[in-house]
Amino acid sequence: MILVNSPGSWAHIHPPLRHAEWHGLTPTDLVFPFFLFIVGVAISLSFARRLDDGATRGDLVRKIISRSVIIFAVGLFLNGFPFKLPLNELRIPGVLQRIALCYLLAGLAVVLAGRNRNRALVTVGFLVLYELLMRLPLVQGWGAGSFEIQDNFVLWADLKLLGEAHIYQEGGVFFDPEGLVSTLPAAATTMVGFFVGEYIRGPLSLALKLRRFALVGAGLAAIGLLTCQLEPVNKKLWTVSYVLLTGGLAMLTLALSSWMIDVRKWRIGTMPAVVFGSNPLVAFVGSGLLVRVLLLVRTTDAQGQTVSLSRAMYEGFFVQLAGPLNGSLLYAVTTVIFWLGILWILHRRKLFIKI
User: I need a surface site. Which of 122, 156, 245, 293 has the fewest CB within 10 A?
Assistant: First the structure.
């Protein structure tokens, strides 16, 4: 997402690095569900370890709540920076806020439901509740099966509960891609990862487990493709078809990655992933803050005009080197390399920022 969120110019972006405008899927639309999926896997592994170390269910619940509150607060901080807007215009939803809420819902489901059968019922409940809210005629003129931007129930709920001033808008169009109602199926994506984590902890050989859940992933993705005839694949609404398709693809990706790295021991070139994965919050928050700082700092370009430092670097160096489109990509790649260097230093010094 650093690559996606840090182009030299938003007017010059290669299509795979854009989100789908509404219905549909691009490679960029896989990043968020894959992250929530692996959060679910981590919940299974870390909670089991904590319980083995003597933690109680109450300890886990307190940790879940405190961690969720902190991540949500960091997301609000990122939304507000550089704090020029009054609080009554602060956008409340966001990427970190959704991660916090999904971790909260999934974590509490895991701890309080007790058994995997009950946890599965809770996961299905997330999806069923979402479908009911989206399809029932609860509000005149809204929802009732609409998955279009102007009259879906996700937007209605955000407008009523949060208000226009606190949700995302672009070009005068109000819609927040991290809305309240669509967090329900996003939590289901997290639970899909949890069940994969539970299977990984099982007694079978790793190679056999990988083959089995790769097959399940392929089946889940196929079901997602079939259900898109009934409900569009839409990341901003986080539709059920999107949950099934991306959940299946995440399972396939994890199975392939684990087979290559853990079974075949092909680990050449994996260190950058380890480095980024060791301090993901630093990478995401730091890169977001840097983008804003580079836009705030003003300088003079070759024509003597006052522009942002970001634009001056893009037009003065990257465009000259590779043209507008590839220069924009090169600017983003340079940002990724910059953060890789920062995180590599932290990794070598064993400095890991955890919540």
Answer: 293
Give the whole-angstrom CA distance, residue 12 versus residue 311.
13
59: left (phi over 0), alpha (psi -120 to 50) or beta: alpha
Q: Is the peptide bond before 203 cis (omega within 30 degrees of 0)?
A: no
- Alpha carbon distance 288, 304 (integer Å): 28
Q: How does pLDDT run across 280-328, given as a tens digit for each residue? A: 999 999 999 999 999 999 998 778 889 999 999 999 999 999 999 999 9
CB 163, CB 176: distance < 8 Å: no
Instruction: Spell out the residues 6+ positions from residue 277 whose beta carbon is closer than 8 angstroms to its own.
Output: none
Neighbours of 346 (CB within 10 A): 16
Q: How confident is the model at residue 247 (pLDDT cuts 50, 70, 90)?
A: very high
The rounded percent of the chain whose pLDDT value lies above 90 is: 92
Bridge partner residues of 142 (DSSP): 139
Q: What is the C-alpha to C-alpha distance for residues 233 and 124, in angstroms, rounded to an integer? A: 18
| pLDDT at residue 83, rounded to an integer | 81
Is the Cβ–Cβ distance between 247 and 37 less than 8 Å? yes
The first and second tokens of residue 160, run together, are: 């009523």
Look up tokens 């994965």; give the residue: 277
Q: What is the C-alpha to C-alpha distance for residues 106 and 303, in angstroms, rounded to an integer?
A: 54
Type of residue found at 280: P
Sketch the domain layout of the chain as residue ranges.
23-266, 267-355
Give the pairing of strands 306-308 and 298-300.
Answer: antiparallel
354 by Cβ neighbours in 10 Å (0-12 / 13-18 / 19+) ranks as exposed
